[in-house]
Known about the structure:
The protein is of the alpha+beta class. Helix content is about 30%, strand content about 20%. It has an eight-stranded mixed sheet with strand order 5-4-3-6-2-1-7-8, covered by helices on one side. Strands 9-10-13-11-12 form a five-stranded mixed sheet, with helices on both faces.
Amino acid sequence: MVAAQIAAGEVVERPASVVKELVENAIDAGATRIEIDLEQGGVELVRISDDGSGILRDDLPLAVAPHATSKIRATSDLDHIATLGFRGEALASIASVSRLSIRSRTPDAGEAWQLDLEGDPEAATPGRVRPAAGAPGTVVSVRNLFFNTPARRKFLRTTATEQSRCVDAVTQLALSHPAVAFVCRCDGRVVIDVPREQTPHRRALDLLGPELQDQLLEISADRYDDARGLTLWGLVGLPAIARATRAAQHLFINGRAVRDRTVQHALQEGYRGILEPGRFPTALLMIEMSPEGVDVNVHPQKAEVRFRDSGVVHSVVYHAVKRALAAADLTPTLTDLGRPSRASDPRAILPGPATPEPGGSRVSPPIDGGGPTRAAFVDYFRRFMPSGPTERLSYDAIREAVRGTGGPGEGPSIEPATPVSTDERPAREPGLAPAPRPADRVLQVHNSYLVTQDAEGVVIVDQHALHERVMFEALLARVLERDLESQRLLTPVVVDVTPAQSASIDELSPLFKRIGIEASALGPRQVGVSAFPSFLFERGVDAGGFVRALLDRAGASDFAPGSEDALRDVLDMMACKAAVKAGDRMSEGELTELLRLREAVERSSNCPHGRPTTVRLTIRELERLFGRA
């Protein structure tokens, strides 16, 4: 029994751990409705009731035996784990630190059977199983958690905190299984009640708050063929609801809440250039794939996974996010900019992910049958994907497209950001407002902001931020084709630097060459600049000041001279220096041309730093300001 209590420390950390394990068992048993009852934050009672396949009378004692319910019968089974639980640890661990009662009935049985234990799973014998009344399915009651290990119990948080974590665990599982009905009650009060067979989108809004509907974009990709590849469905937030941490990013792989750097990197890359540094997008991503394509047994708490082919996963997520953002109007409104901090509004953000922990699964169903298969889940999500013409590349085509782009998780190569005409831009999703189009009249306010109108209201443009984005995209498109043109200086410009900066010139030379700068060390504290980018020279940018600023940036710990990120950083600096400044007077033709370029340039809603270039004051907001709404 002591050994069981020690083992329980790895599985049962708090009431939320119990909730997660037992609800996963119910899902594995094919339940279509799951009810969760909590008392005192789950410390006094956690009861999980389901209508799943149930447990046979003779299997009840085995259900609480360590590893007896494991789905792993051979080493090869690790390559096709299709259930949430598979190690067989949960019920045995829970039984060792609580007063446990299991009542279960299979669909073809005439009566239910019940097993009661008090902190000792080894006491489970066939003689302790007794008949009971109950509907088909299983009811597991866990009372007085840690009653026999008071040292563990005293480290629990307040009732409100433990209850919140339990509800978060239910929320995560309900999000990833929209075909299952969930009801969660805390001390008799219903806090979650969602019906079965919901669309993934409707389930997300019901659980996260309907007020997020206008702040989330739907993404999808279907690359699942012949039990390979993956199907992706998800919701990604507008830049206005990005957060300072990844707490609002929710990733589900085959219904399991996990953390994964490959997907996080792909998501962040999809938002490159439209988020300020240090901000992370809000997202709910559900990936369904063949069990052979992902290893879920690489983390003690099953909180991480390892993909067999992470390059395909990265490519599909990255392009799905990028397409959705390109088709959306990302112009924030006055209301968006004035929203209170998401951190202080629990209904305005996605809840933090529940920490996945190890656990087992019920005796039935076996790994090769009984519960929903992965293909069934793929078909379920396919039902709700947008109809119409979509890119349907096979797994092999995607694999070939990402071959040679680097190791797993490194991401795709940078695509040229060549400006395209308005007619060539991606079609926008129905219901999304079009981007502002140039109006007949444009007003320049304080030589810094442009004011015009569109069908949605008044459009205000930061002239420097917009021109910076235009210049950045033009520079990026040019440098990906060939090195930037340079202007030789009549006499080298001497820049005072630190010894470390002087020593770094040789390392920076390839980067300097790409952007049209020629520089060499003249000594331990001086650098000579003999050539400078032509367009910066024409814009009157000081060569010495720019090179000094570039060397300062190169000294940062996150600056890798040979990387594409470093190139983008430098191009961003160049665009900022060359762009029209706040306070610069512009002619009427220049104003009209700048707004035209906004239509032609990708991601023109934000400058390269992620700040908005444009803000819309909608008609409804105007009516509220003047008391007409």
